[in-house]
Design a protein that fits this description.
The chain is mainly beta and 846 residues long. Helices cover 13% and strands 43% of the residues.
């Protein structure tokens, strides 16, 4: 006999089937007398094997006088069936006897799963309620089959079929087998928006998490249909509109329809935008006599004339409420109110400060943290047991816990405490994996092919520590690094970071020398505000230059020339050459027949390894709407480093970098990038060439790495870039999507114009045998290329010239990591600058 049940959930179905000689649930009552109630002398039980006789009898309780009416018999029958212990129950009354005949459900010997490849047995075993050595219950088995189907639906497999089968064994035992046909993943074939006029569908697809299926979808899961994710997308769309001034917006519906022909879901969001509002006025009111509301104006992020932004209002409320608490008004509550002017399209915002209920936190319960220590969670709270309940501080703690990225889900809910003025906070968490192992690969026109292997843990030992080790190996760059971060140093909200690294840069097409750097850097990080942070650091590193012998073998002296206390013999190989490039022992240009590295490079080589010890800080201001793919906001970095705290070099290096993103019409985002820096000499210590700023496409695209600024122009040398002590740069870029391509391709185009300059070389310019520029054997540096100087002097170009370029780019947010292709044409350049019109870079982790 077979029993089939088709369960439909949403738009897809799971099929559940029983096979085998299994009787349907059966219960009957046979009364031998029509009387409404009879005296029962005894209750007889037939067919029980495992269940005790008295247990079954206990379900039939006679009333007063020992009578059992039809109602009591029916109640006992129902209660007996609800136990799930029996597949059949019959009741027969004969005179003063009540005969209960039962057929016990079999005992489950084992529970097994067949056909499951995408979901492990352990995960399914934890979900089903039917367990080995338990009693078989058909309703429970049906529920288990539905649970299994739901697990597969959550992973995007809506064509799953689950068939429970029972194999009879001796002694009334059965093996329960769930046969699973997993089916293929059910993806999202299209995402449409209806009613959106202010923002294009292309822009709104950036806001939501659900993605359309494409050729590279196998690398991720965001295209898999998930009803919970679609519902969350509704809220993301709504908050996006509220952030941009649309106070009346409603996301009316999120409709999902399964298309059998396309074998996927069609998702449609219906939006009623309403009109856009600006802030007409901002007012502050306080019902607390001793608290002047206007004194909290500085904590408001809402200004007159700006777009109405719910996020700014929420942040203002939080900051104002926390500040009021600091001033001693622990129960103050800030309530925002907005009065719309429909004709003027403005909102009058009022922040009303009232005395809230005097409620205290009785207890904070933490649930679901199987790995993370309790104190790691509790330290994200600015309140503890016994403190006044402050909703703003609770919301801030919830946001901090989410930002830790330790948990899949974080929810803080309240429940009444032991009295009316007490509340209990329940912190419900769901842990997730925090370890990463990655093998990264990439290629750029600067560093060539590059590979990296790294292992990291964001929640090391469950103590909230960060640790990472990585090894890099490439054509021109190699090294390793070890990093460790303690986010709460001595239980203060101060992050301590330790970095140990070694980097090796090999000679390539852009530099004639190689460098090796071994360093250690401790740092302290302070979060001054949500959008402002400060980092203090100390760096100590050892650096040395490597150079082929052929690039540093000239002494440019004739045979027998006295330098110091010794005579230098004449070495005919390489031969001296003259201005015409011909061998000439008396030539005045020096022995550059096989090339020669620039003087500062050879001087660094002769000086050997150099130790740099520096103190520095970085001030970071960040209001970006998205750190990975920003479309709005400001990012500013200001940093200074002072070298000379011991070590071999001294300098003060200052750098400024600012990027401003703002959306324009039709999904076009403009980016304004400003940067500048200056290197100051401290005392009488000579600046090294390696400490100078080196610029190229990082300042003006279209130029080669180290292609801009002061350069050794000796025509017979390697003409190395020397770097500069001052630079500035400005760039304007417009990024726009390709509307004719699917959003999921992640391709955007860019057009840009760059301008900048690098100048002010202050490194060594001469290296005379006795310290004098005009020592015999040393030709004084000059700008005349026909009299280029010698290995004892430097001829260089250092024109403060503005470099400009225009170009186009292709930006691809690929599943293999961010990739960028640029083609730029220099418009103005220095005489000896080096250009590189095409540039490519990118990489990934897998």
């Amino acid at each position: 006999m077979k029993f089939g049940l088709r369960v439909r959930g949403g738009l897809a179905a799971a099929f559940i089937m029983f096979a085998g000689p299994v009787a349907l649930p059966l219960a009957s009552v046979v009364l031998s007398s029509p009387a409404a109630a009879q005296t029962v002398n005894s209750i007889e039980v037939v067919g029980n094997r495992r269940v005790e006789l008295e247990t079954i009898r206990s379900y039939f309780k006679p009333g007063p006088g020992g009578t059992l009416d039809a109602g009591r018999v029916d109640d006992g029958l129902k209660a007996l069936i609800e136990t799930g212990l029996f597949s059949d129950v019959k009741i027969n009354r004969q005179g003063g006897r009540l005969i209960v005949t039962v057929v016990e459900n079999p005992v489950i010997g084992r529970v097994a799963f067949e056909g499951n490849k995408k979901v492990k047995d352990e995960q399914l075993q934890a979900e089903v309620q039917s367990k080995p050595r338990g009693t078989l219950s058909r309703p429970m088995v049906q529920s288990d089959a539905q649970r299994i189907a739901e697990i597969y639906r959550r992973s995007g497999r809506y064509d799953v079929r689950v068939t429970p089968e029972m194999i009879e064994q001796p002694n009334n035992r059965v093996d329960l087998i769930f046969t699973i046909e997993e089916g293929a993943k059910t993806g999202v074939k299209s995402i449409e928006f209806v009613g959106n006029n202010a923002f294009s569908s292309y822009r709104l697809k950036d806001v939501i998490k659900t993605r359309e299926t494409n050729l590279l979808s196998f690398l991720g899961s965001s295209d898999v249909y998930d009803p919970d994710r679609v519902e969350a997308d509704r809220d993301l769309i709504r908050r996006f509109y509220l952030k941009n001034g649309y106070a009346d917006v409603q996301v009316v519906a999120a409709l999902s329809e399964y298309d059998p022909e396309r074998k996927g879901f069609l998702v449609t969001f219906k939006i009623e935008e309403g009109q856009q509002y600006r802030v007409g006025s901002v007012d502050f009111q306080s019902s607390i006599a001793t608290l002047d509301a206007t004194t909290l104006r500085g904590y408001s992020r809402v200004s007159v004339g700006s777009l109405y932004n719910v996020e700014n209002i929420e942040k203002s409320v939080e900051e104002m409420q926390i500040e009021a608490s600091r001033r001693g008004y622990a129960f103050a509550v800030v309530r925002p109110r907005g009065d719309r002017n429909f004709e003027a399209h403005t909102v009058s915002v009022v922040f009303a400060i009232d005395e809230g209920p005097r409620t205290y936190i009785e207890r904070i319960n933490i649930r679901g943290n199987t790995r993370t220590r309790d104190y790691v969670i509790r330290r994200e709270f600015d309140i503890s047991e016994g403190d006044a309940y402050n909703r703003a501080l609770v919301d801030r703690a919830e946001r901090r816990l989410k930002n830790l990225d330790f948990f899949k889900d974080v929810k803080i809910v309240t429940e009444p405490g032991s009295s009316s003025d007490r509340v209990v906070l329940n912190v419900n968490l769901e842990e997730k994996s925090t370890g990463d192992f990655s093998i990264s690969g990439g290629y750029s026109t600067t560093d060539g092919a590059l590979a990296e292997v790294s292992i990291s843990e964001r929640n090391f030992l469950g103590r909230g520590l960060f640790a990472k080790a990585s090894v890099t190996y490439g054509q021109f760059a190699r090294g390793y690094s070890l990093s460790f971060v303690e986010p709460y140093l001595l239980d203060y909200r101060v992050a301590l970071g330790l970095d140990l690294y070694q980097r090796q840069q090999l000679a390539n097409n852009f530099i004639s020398y190689g460098t090796k750097t071994l360093g250690f850097s401790p740092r302290l990080g302070f979060q001054l505000r949500e959008d402002l942070s400060l980092q203090l650091r100390y760096s100590i590193y050892r650096q040395e230059i490597s150079l082929p012998a052929t690039l540093s073998d000239c002494n440019n002296v004739a045979a027998g020339t006295l330098i110091g206390n010794r005579f230098v013999p004449f070495n005919p190989t390489p031969a001296f050459i003259n201005a015409n490039g011909l061998a000439d022992p008396n030539g005045g240009l020096g022995c550059f027949a096989n090339g020669e590295a620039s003087l500062p490079v050879r001087q660094e080589l002769a000086n050997g390894a150099t130790l740099t010890s520096a103190l520095g800080y970085t001030l970071n201001y960040n209001t970006l709407d998205n750190n990975k793919n920003p479309t709005d906001g400001l990012l500013v970095d200001f940093k200074q480093d002072f070298a000379g705290v011991g070590g071999d070099v001294s300098y003060l290096k200052t750098a400024f970098d600012a990027k401003y993103f703002t959306p324009l019409v039709s999904d076009i985002v403009s980016i304004v990038h400003l940067q500048g820096g200056i290197l100051n000499k401290i005392g009488n210590t000579q600046l090294r060439m390696l400490d100078h700023f080196q610029m190229g496409p990082n300042l003006v695209r279209g130029f080669a790495p180290n292609g801009i600024g002061p350069r050794d122009i000796n025509p017979f040398g390697t003409q190395d870039a020397l770097g500069g002590t001052k630079y500035w740069g400005a760039s304007l870029e417009l990024q726009m999507p390709f509307w004719f391509l699917p959003k999921e391709t992640g391709l955007k185009g860019a057009v840009y114009a760059d301008a900048g300059g690098l100048w002010g070389y202050q490194g060594p310019t001469s290296w005379a045998a006795t310290g004098e520029v005009n020592t015999p054997g040393c030709i004084k540096p000059t700008r005349n290329p026909n009299n280029a100087g010698t290995c004892l002097g430097l001829q260089f170009d250092d024109q403060n010239k503005v470099r400009t370029s225009v170009g186009v780019g292709l930006v691809w947010a690929s599943p293999f990591g961010p990739l960028r292709f640029d083609y730029a044409i220099p418009l103005t350049k220095g005489q000896f600058d080096r250009t590189q019109e095409f540039r490519f870079g990118g990489g990934t982790s897998f």
